[in-house]
Specification:
4-stranded mixed beta sheet; alpha/beta; Aspartate Aminotransferase, domain 1; Aspartate Aminotransferase, domain 2; 38% helix; binds pyridoxal-5'-phosphate
Length: 449
Amino acid sequence: MTDVEQQATPASSQWFERARAVSPGGVNSPVRAFRAVGGTPRFMVSAEGSWLTDADDTTYLDLVGSWGPMLLGHAHPQVISAVQDVAARGTSFGTPSLPEVELAEEIVARAPVESVRLVSSGTEATMSAIRLARGFTGRNRIVKFAGCYHGHVDALLAEAGSGLVTLGIPGTPGVPEHVTADVIVLPYNDTAAVTEAFERYGDEIACLVTEAAAGNMGVVAPDPGFNAFLARTCREHGALFVSDEVMTGFRLSRAGHWGIEGAKEGWRPDLLTFGKVMGGGFPAAAFGGRRDVMDHLAPSGPVYQAGTLSGNPVATTAGLTTLRLADDAVYRSIDEWSAEARRLVSDALDEAGVPHVVQEVGSMFSILWGTTTRARSFADVQAQEAWRYGPFFHAMLEAGIYLPPSAYESWFVSAAHDDQGLSRMASALPAAARAAAAAPPTVSASASE
Ligand SMILES: Cc1ncc(COP(=O)(O)O)c(C=O)c1O
């Protein structure tokens, strides 16, 4: 970190030094370290509504929302009071408890699932869904898409190699090749590649897992009909269709991305995974789906899956309270704020002469830099001028707006975002857009939270 940064953020700089002495890179999840944009990560000390306050007492408009969970905004009074109430009566029982049943009922009422198992993180949800799919079908192969992130599950860290149908190559040291050998990685939105993979390996494929809409390579919407095609192809080959709604679930609509697509088109995934919003800012996640598939889980069936803190009463109460408050008005206000913010960003970039595409799905969006062609795949996204993002990000940060510290992440809006936030955006954007226009080309990194 430079002297200038240290002077501008003395408390965050000091905390970062302390953190680096005791934690790898000074963080507990890589993208928080600001490696993709440079500079000092801000150490937050409090949050309320759509605002974050850091250790230097600077307040920011928050467009990260803890990477998705904070649908209602921070420290929502009803969520906080419900959490305080339940925590005062004990924080974990290791027995069945009431809020976990109510949360499961709420999820079943909203999403296309007949039965759910609660877990503690999105990673655990996708890992367990895949084990279940393999146990249910008796097959080993998995299909996933390049650029889709499903948590740091060993097998799902496989990335695309060259060629249309590639067998998985581990995306990180520490994952043995045999773990990803059964993973087929395909380009997103490429129906021909999916058809080819299923023609070749169809009767060996346990499941295809995809983000309901991709949000971990920046936002990349599924082409119209793509998810329906995946559901159909899986069914034809006796494989399970696993839709990962950890990011989109209960965010894009009452029923997540499925609510704005599958519900209208008349198809259902066999399994879905959830996290983020359904935990209301606490560690709670879930996977669920067809009852006959879910009944393969222990203790009903033979596939083992368990967790000391699964269904934790505090986490499930936070999630349940959040979901119960997430009515049509909440989704409408998030959609409207997001549309207005997208317009402001796009107008400012146009004004500064920066070619760009606002990549969007529902209220989630990100900016694709240096092109006017919408990205449909990870390869498209990687071809952008991502180096324009760092200067843009820092200009916004200096003007009191906290954006995701990577061009490859979605921006998240909450129901607490209001006109004050839009005016802060409007005053910050012209200088940030000019900074993006003037940015010198550099190598940029991508990372996922
Ligand atoms: C689509 C998707 N699946 C799974 C995960 C993993 O969730 P967690 O970070 O809670 O393990 C994420 C996290 O960002 C995600 O976006």
